[in-house]
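Take a look at this chain, tokens included, and explain the fold to me:
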Amino acid sequence: MVLSENKTSSKVLIIGAGFSGLATACQLRREHNCDDYVIYDRSPAPGGTWWANKYPGCAVDIPAVFYSLSFAPNPDFSKVYPPQAEILEYFNKVADKFDVSRHIVRSTEWEGAYWQDFTNSWLVKLKDLSTGQTFYQECKILISAVGALVNPNRFGIPGVETFEGDIVHTAAWKADLSLHQKDVIVVGNGCELHFLSLSPKGMSPTVDQVRLLSLFPLLLKKLEASPNLFGYHFSLVQTPQFYLQNENMQIDDRWKFIFRYVPGVLRLLRLIVFLFLESTAVRFNINYKGNKARNLSAERSKAYIQSTAPDDPIVKISSHSIFTKSGQEYPADAILLATGFALTQYEVELVGRNGRTRDEHWGNFGYKEAYKSVAMSGFPNFFYVLGPNSGKGHTSAIYCIENIPANSDTSYVNLVMKAIAPVLQDRASFVEVKPDSEKEYNENLHEKIATTIFNSSCSSYFIDYKSQKNWFIYPWNSFVMWYSTHWGRSDDWTYDARPDKNHRVFSFGHLLLLLALSIIPISFKLSMTVSEKLY
């Protein structure tokens, strides 16, 4: 490969300036006092999905007290489920507080990365989107903090290219979009639709009519055909807000005062929300308790679904109208797409040891995978944040990013921070997960997924269409996630130790170990007790 003269270097390079990138950068500074890092993001501004998604009514669907970084609580959210603008404002405040903003390089796209054995470093190919210029940067540690909820799903209805009005996806909202006196078609049945439907002001009060036309017409029929909901529950898990609407309470100034000035209140509330959300995880298991919990949820939501879910899909589009399967024609001046996202975060070329690509590595497994969602053998010093099988169907994505429990002291660091410590401290030149450990972990993971509803045949982006394997869900509960990422086996990793530099990986005091082992079973029992009472 011919290298560009325009080549710089840094100890750590992070791809993605969303919450994953922000949390990683903050922990580099807090836990390792590392200031030698850079964050690249293709967007004109940081914030990730919270910058990209600006559609009317866009808001978080997890109580904000738990949709925030554990080391940076926010007492000033205006609502239990605050709007997009407040989440983005919180993001930028944290970035400024921890001096992350000056490390972010905007409008720069990641095009590839190549491991260099002779220097034990990564050569990263990047493109400046403002100039079109390609350049390279070297780094010791490469971290992919690329998110998923940014790229719009393709809208492939026949005739779409002939439509003469506006076609706007929620992830590419036009600030100057005018819907005054227009016939508007809204396509989709996901979270974006829920928030659009709650925002008549954002949609414009002068819109003549808004028609909700689902691209997934078999939804209701699958519910009727599946009394235990195995064939249906993916749609419920993906988009609960569409079926069960949340009350979004205002947080008044008295509560904000308490949150800001009374020590421990926000942390206690965070713990309560964590335990409540964790108690709902029982619904995902294929057993008596799981069946009972799902059936109870179905009884509460079935009537709402029947009254709102459309079953006449769009089959064709013309210049000023859309046609459905029944033959009905609807006039249309604008089409708003709430059709979800294309999950393309793993399409960038990644080449590890001996010229082996990520696709070849996954081809050997037969599916997308990573050891504990963060690392792959043959790709030293490369890590994911929110990698394969890191998602949860019932709790906060930021919890998964941090891997820090709701009531923990942030003296603990997440799995990636522990793994890279010897490299950051120049006690090793690389760290790499062992192939046998990677294989064993993924075998156990897919055995566990098989005991949950997440292996359903229902169409879902959780399932890779090539391998038919679930690449998205982390199947164990959040206590297991925390324990396995904080007290992992050090012999799962290989280090190239430098001479005269001894190092110990995951060195914790016996007191902390005994404390963790005593608290976790108690917390887990409490969570399960709450679950049994609820369901």
Observations:
- The longest strand covers residues 134-144.
- Residues 7-151+342-534 form a domain with the FAD/NAD(P)-binding domain fold (CATH 3.50.50.60).
